[in-house]
């Protein structure tokens, strides 16, 4: 046995040790850092709930009062706080134990491996299919917000609660349901993508992408987001639109990517162009304006000068025009800033 | 929030380097005590593999990753109680050991979520081999299985293990050497059975 290799990997690699290292590699800790601020908050909520255990004398009165209050609140908001999980393939774990079916307590992690999947559902919120190799946790379940943490992996959410209530937070972006069905994937390195099947999703990172049905957006580590783009656009357009926002301003690929976007853009892709202003430099904004103006003429008051001197919300008036021209459905919650 | 991955080959030969690292951990702990979650994330990046190794020496691999997070959450709550911030490594190492013991106590006290205790998930050949080798490591004496898990599973070097756990380099070296001898014997027995 090579002692140097065992000690500090010095000298020639010891074949027996290398064999053991390779054999044990699948057990190595995955390299990602959890969002401890969020975890601590979720955990504190869970601890607070578990600490509220009165003695039997007061318990009965509390049960009656709390029961009435819960019934009253839930009947007002039509929101249940009961999420249930069940395995749909293999052996996912809930709170470190093999899950078949069980209630999801806030702060508890549901984990699937490559061979397992699960489903969590709440009667009045919706259903979430948790794909293989995923880790999710319910951080908050209240009439104000249903907050799911997706540390990594993929989920397919079908949501029927009021828009804005169901939120999925990831290390790189937050997806806010605006009456929809969507698939969200986030890798361990923070990269990911959102694909919307119906309705709208507001994807919030260092910017915002409002993604309608039939469109998707990419997520990069560090909370950068691509603009939304339709999945029936040309492959070259999708690739360029998906990457343009992540390129540095001096990247040699940036010019060709924008040229591809402008060349392949159909009227339907006006949505993508409208979302590119916030991610473009002055000369790029003028090119985007010209193309977008061809596809969906700008409303009165928005000119090349507006594009040249672009500021947050300066394209707001163009948004409903594009939305109408493209026949996009109504955005059900208006606390977003579509002009960004 | 993601941070640069942990660097494996960390020189520890110079006193200056060691002092800088100790200072750095002290600074990170102080910053985290003041509420800087990025600093705590950096502590996670530096010490999570050590904690994972300590847990793998005792609990099933499927539970270890969740427990790493629990250990760090527990540490975050108790962070203000650390008297010597530079001793963070040894402190969280102890939390990890205690959490592993609690894991088995909780198992005895609680009802399984599963309705089918015998339900086994299908696993790849590589995962089966890894689980089998880990099972042998877990039967070794405590000091050996911890250092071996950190070295063989997490890929930490001996100097890194010493620096992170607060153990002396000499102890780690002895544990690795004797642990490997015992592991080789145990694997030989397994193979011959």
Notes on the structure:
The complex is a heterodimer of chains A (340) and B (193). With 340 residues, chain A is an alpha+beta fold. Chain A contains 10 helices and 18 strands. Chain A has helices at residues 3-8, 15-24, 36-51, 56-77, 235-244, 254-264, 270-276, 282-295, 304-308, 318-325; strands at 83-89, 93-94, 97-98, 101-103, 109-111, 117-122, 126-130, 135-141, 146-159, 166-169, 174-177, 181-186, 192-198, 200-204, 208-212, 215-220, 224-225, 229-230. The termini of chain A are far apart. Chain B contains 8 helices and no strands. Chain B has one domain: Rna Polymerase Sigma Factor, Chain: A (Orthogonal Bundle). With 193 residues, chain B is mostly helical. Residues 1-16 and 109-122 of chain B have low confidence and may be disordered. Chain B has helices spanning 15-33, 37-56, 61-78, 88-109, 125-138, 142-153, 158-165, 169-192. In chain B, helix 1 crosses helix 2 and helix 2 (37-56) packs across helix 6 (142-153). The interface between A and B is large, with 52 and 62 residues.
Task: Please give the structural blueprint.
The complex is a heterodimer of chains A (340) and B (193).
Chain A: H1 3-8, H2 15-24, H3 36-51, H4 56-77, E1 83-89, E2 93-94, E3 97-98, E4 101-103, E5 109-111, E6 117-122, E7 126-130, E8 135-141, E9 146-159, E10 166-169, E11 174-177, E12 181-186, E13 192-198, E14 200-204, E15 208-212, E16 215-220, E17 224-225, E18 229-230, H5 235-244, H6 254-264, H7 270-276, H8 282-295, H9 304-308, H10 318-325
Parallel strand pairs in A: 9-10
Antiparallel strand pairs in A: 1-4, 1-6, 2-3, 2-5, 5-8, 6-7, 7-9, 8-9, 9-12, 10-11, 11-14, 12-13, 13-16, 14-15, 16-17, 16-18
Helix pairs in contact in A: 5-6, 7-8
Chain B: H1 15-33, H2 37-56, H3 61-78, H4 88-109, H5 125-138, H6 142-153, H7 158-165, H8 169-192
